[in-house]
Design goal:
- There is one protein chain.
- The protein has 705 residues and is α+β, with helices and mostly antiparallel strands.
- The protein has a domain of 88 residues.
- It has 22 helices and 19 strands.
- A hairpin with a 6-residue loop joins strand 17 and strand 18.
- Helix 7 runs antiparallel to helix 8 and helix 10 crosses helix 17.
- It is globular, with a radius of gyration of 25 Å.
């Protein structure tokens, strides 16, 4: 894992995937068994940054590791990592230092790369092209791209796309989930088809013989025997080449091993295997698959970070990244001709003309590895979202300070608080694929007036799927406070004359250095108050919103009274709500209410929560943990609850995943059969695809009316 490096000097530089994978591959079996312990020990080891830009790490009495990144600030060659011990370069110290460093993004090569028809598995030659990883001293004006904010990763929560809404009061069926299209930041979203479509997405290969523990029907059709060996289809125009099919098969095998082990056991060695397969995919031109593999490695390290328990959505992000990787590689190794599967190297783009942006809110960022900072969200006249980020080492303390810190865009200097309540005119803008504004050469920015928050944030946001160059949109709605429930708040969505659904507001960050929890507690103490909320829908519970900012409802009598300098918005992570911000005569705290009333107002979680819990348990705990529901007596209850809720296909997939996880066939030597590992990965993928599509349909019906 990548350990946090608080108070241990400079952060380690990013390392190209090929370099890190080659270092781990060169170790002996005995040293590989000690690698995770060596990586963990570096969490408290000081890092010295010399004047010439090299990094030094003391790993023992006779071991001094030196990392010398190139001009890009990234380790791109094995020669840039040296150790003074006798076993170098095949030593544990050097491999641990490289494995503890963050994974670098790769940029398109300056010269034409190898032909896709060339077999990339012939060798693991490290790529000599510089990576786009940030240097250790890069400031916010350089467009920091180490931001681990929830929307920056493919892990980001799946943002439901606009589409048809299921009938009111009726839960979408498995077939209704075919309308769902999960969004992934690693590339264009694949058209998922919900429940039965999980089988369609996993087409290829004969169906396994159904045992007594495996249900029949849609779930059985979703389980396929997947093999990475066998005849490779010939090269056909428009289809993946033979080398690309082999590279996709290698990625599938590495990802399946990670899934079977789980995040708790996927240490440096399985991560290195995945990085090696990602490098092979890059040589074959599979850019989307490579990006998905790198995202899985980053989320694995974030999940294993012991200092990141306060960060939400980590399991959801890892599930989304692993689902994307397995789905893309499964279709590629079946020679699917869809050109979106190959993808392309992400490029920054320059919009035509000047960008007129309006500030919306600030979001604190507290990420793994001791990272902290702020993201300022902006929107243009067409409703497209952009971000300006300032993230670096420092943790929650830096996240708190960054809310009012200065931000530079070339010669333009301002602060995040002013920009979030004002506006910006950018000429010659350079925008990253995820919507980040970059301070490249030729960019000029000028401060401009903002606009009322009610105009920038619609009462009911129904955003389309963000395209390349735009940040994922946030969800906004008008709500009425119902009651407080601990650190959470129950609210009712205002949908005109008809009463809206009851949803739950939970803190976006629970760290005490940030004001989210205190502000929500203050709002929950004023039932009947009407506010406009902007935030993110929890990917695991569609009835839960994590608010980032609140403001008054236009025309409402009982709403917030914010200072004029706040421009009708309060950033819940930075601004502190006080008595003066509430209407006169507001009853705070509320009078006692019957317990039954609060219980009746509490939103009911969807039965799909049972499927999500199992899917996340399989990713975090591994195959052994996923098999537990098949062994206890509670499985029948979960399946029955899913069927009562109208999720018949989900019930079959839930039972099938537990049954496949518990069944461990072995070969003549007592070893687990590899084909069974592929079948388990295919079954998990079918369940995850169904879950994503169905949850997206439910979210559209709830939030985008």
């Amino acid at each position: 894992m990548t350990p946090p490096r608080e108070d241990t000097g400079a952060p380690l530089p990013p390392v190209a995937p090929a370099v890190s994978a080659a270092a781990v591959e060169s170790l002996t079996t005995r040293l590989r068994g000690r690698l995770d312990q060596a990586v963990a020990s570096l969490a408290t080891t000081p890092v010295d940054l010399a004047e010439d830009g090299t990094y030094g790490i003391r790993c023992g009495a006779d071991a001094w590791v030196t990392l010398a990144p190139g001009p890009s600030g990234t380790i791109t060659s094995p020669d840039q990592a040296r150790c003074t011990c006798l076993l170098s370069p095949r030593c544990l110290h050097r491999a641990a230092a490289l494995a503890a460093s963050p994974v670098a993004d790769v940029i398109p090569p300056r010269e034409p790369g190898p032909s896709p028809d060339r077999d990339p598995s012939a060798g693991l030659a490290p790529d000599r092209d510089p990576s786009a990883g940030p240097g250790p001293d890069r400031g916010p004006s350089a467009g920091l791209d180490t931001d681990p904010s929830p929307e920056g990763a493919p892990s980001a929560a799946a943002v439901p796309s606009a589409g048809p809404v299921p009938p009111a009061g009726q839960a979408p069926s498995a077939e209704g989930a075919s309308l769902a299209k999960p969004v992934s930041s690693t590339g264009p979203a694949l058209p998922t088809e919900g429940a039965p479509s999980a089988a369609t997405a996993l087409s290829g290969g004969p169906a396994p013989a159904a045992g007594s523990a495996v249900p029949t029907g849609p779930a059985a059709r979703a389980v396929r025997t997947v093999s990475t060996v066998g005849p490779v289809p010939p090269a056909v125009p428009g289809r993946p080449s033979a080398a690309q099919v082999r590279a996709a098969g290698g990625l599938w095998t590495a990802a399946s091993a990670v899934l079977a082990a789980g995040a708790v056991a996927a240490g440096a060695v399985p991560q290195a295997e995945l990085l090696r397969a990602a490098h092979t995919a890059r040589l074959a031109g599979l850019h989307r698959a490579e990006g998905a593999a790198l995202a899985v490695v980053r989320h694995l390290r974030a999940t294993r970070d012991p200092q990141g328990a306060h960060r939400a959505h980590r399991a959801d992000e890892l599930v989304a990244a692993l689902r994307e990787l397995l789905l893309v590689t499964h279709r590629l190794k079946a020679a699917d001709p869809d050109p979106e599967l190959v993808g392309g190297v992400p490029h920054n783009h320059r919009p035509d003309g000047a960008l007129r942006l309006y500030g919306v809110c600030r979001e604190p960022v507290v990420g793994p590895g001791g990272a902290g900072g702020v993201v300022t969200h902006l929107v243009d006249d067409t409703g497209r979202w952009y971000t300006l980020r300032d993230v670096g080492p420092g943790g929650p303390a830096r996240a708190r300070r960054a809310g009012t810190a200065h931000v530079a865009v070339r010669s333009f200097l301002s602060d995040h608080e002013r920009l979030s309540r004002g506006g910006l005119v950018v000429t010659g803008a350079v925008v990253a694929p995820d919507g980040r504004l970059l301070a490249e050469r030729g960019v000029r920015a000028t401060f401009a007036a903002g606009r009322p928050w009610a105009d920038a944030v619609a009462a009911t946001a129904a955003p389309d799927r963000p395209g390349s160059g735009h940040a994922p949109p946030l969800t906004g709605c008008d709500v009425r406070i119902v009651a407080a429930e601990g650190e959470e708040v129950l609210v009712r969505v205002l949908t005109g004359d008809a009463p809206g659904p009851t949803v739950r507001l939970v803190p976006a960050h629970r760290h005490p250095a940030l004001a989210h929890t205190a502000n929500l507690r203050r709002l929950g103490a004023c039932p009947g108050l009407e506010v406009r909320v902007l935030g993110r829908v929890d990917p695991g519970r569609v009835t839960t919103l994590r608010p980032l900012a609140v403001g008054p409802v236009p025309g409402a009598a009982t709403t917030l009274r914010l200072p004029q300098e706040w421009r009708d918005r309060a950033d819940l992570g930075y601004d502190t709500l006080a008595d003066a911000h509430f209407p006169a005569g507001a009853h705070c705290p509320p009078p006692p209410r019957p317990r039954t009333a609060a219980a009746d107002a509490r939103p009911v979680d969807s039965p799909l929560r049972r499927i999500r819990d199992l899917v996340e348990l399989a990713v975090t705990g591994g195959r052994r943990a996923a098999a537990e529901p098949a062994r206890d007596g509670d499985r029948a209850g979960h399946v029955a609850a899913l069927r009562r809720g109208g999720f018949a296909t989900g019930a079959d997939l839930f039972a099938a995943l537990g049954a496949v996880a518990a069944r461990r066939p072995r070969d003549a030597f007592g070893r687990p059969a590899r084909d069974d590992q592929d079948q388990y990965a295919a079954q998990w993928l079918a369940t995850a695809v169904y879950l994503t599509g169905t949850e997206a349909a439910l979210a559209r019906g709830l939030w985008h009316r």
